[in-house]
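[retry 2/3] DNA repair protein: previous attempt timed out, resubmitting with same input.
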Amino acid sequence: MPKIPAELCIKCKGHKYLCGLSICPILERFKNVTSTVSKIVINNKIEGSTPPSILIGEKNYPKVSLVYNIPPGVIGEEAKDYENPEGWWGRKSLNDIISIRSSLISTILGGLNVRDPYKLYEKEISLAGISEKPVVSETDSSGKIVPKLKFDGILIPRGPSLTVQSIKVSENPKVPRTIQKLIFDDLKAEESVIKLYLDNENYYRIISAFSLGFLGLKRNRKLVPTRWSITAVDQIVGNYLLDNIRTLDTIDNVEYYYGSYLGNHFHIILYPSSHSSTWIEIWHPLSLWTTELIISELSENYWGEYDSLDGGYIAARFSIIEKLYKRRRQAGIIIIREITKDYFAPVGNWHIRETVKRALENKPKTFNTIEESLKYVNTNLEANDKINLLGLKSIKKIIGQRRIDEFLFK
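[retry 2/3] DNA repair protein: success.
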């Protein structure tokens, strides 16, 4: 097999199959090396509380599978920690997260028609996925358990899997009133997502509600693969907030923020400008997708047009636009993500959203010009001696555009 270019792997992150293969060889190798489950003994049934943790797969769409995650023997509030991105941040290491997720059994219901989400409503299976508290559930364990972990670049890792015929929800799910009302309303899905966000509903629960077919006009409701739902909700809310700040004043200075977690370093620069955004990823040798230093660039213009769609960028973009919305300001955005060899396993793009959000809570360092801020970032990169940020195509474009603007409006 010919060598797959690292640049392609960086763009793909294991789920777009840009190389033409039906599986990602990097993830397959990683799963085989890190699978910690060799033997699972369960008597007759699997019982435990889903954290809640339910996702919809995309394989064979529009016939899809539902993955219902259960930590065997774990009942009640303790189950929450098995899927808690906001609570994990800053507290759990990469190894901790892998260990937690490997303790879940992914029970799989296959052959679901995406246009019939009501079948899951009736059995309260999907309701368990939007519950405010863990829900006790059980399923027959007579099938064959596949003792492998499942990873990709957008979703939280999954534990060993088991295909089942049915799942029984043994406890009444506690559905938030905000979502409960929308289940009976006939409101477009995008409008429902925005309403839930403005009502301060838990962000990850909004994603689950969107994925499990609770939102939208009743005649159009359907199950949406969770991977698609994550990026869709980030886009929907991000675009709504962006539309509300386009006419506002810009920030006054060039501001720099920094955040780091799980071997990922985020350098964020906001500068006085109408909206435009640049996403730069610097992948170190022996980090997840590459054995060489790779730099990828993505740009978004004022009108919201991207070079390409990247779920990690959309997650980071959401957190920044949310912060600007709360400040009642707009700005140009540069996000530089440096991924080191310490990020050896993909755990989903939640950590991008959460790290950027927390970075923006810090007091910024200010600069007079974008060039000064980029020089500062360059000296603080782990790969500082191998990279010239000012020489990147996307950065040259930003600096060139600003100089023209300054010349024209003097």
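[retry 2/3] DNA repair protein: The chain has four domains: 1-34, 36-169, 177-243, 254-408.
[retry 2/3] clearing retry counter.
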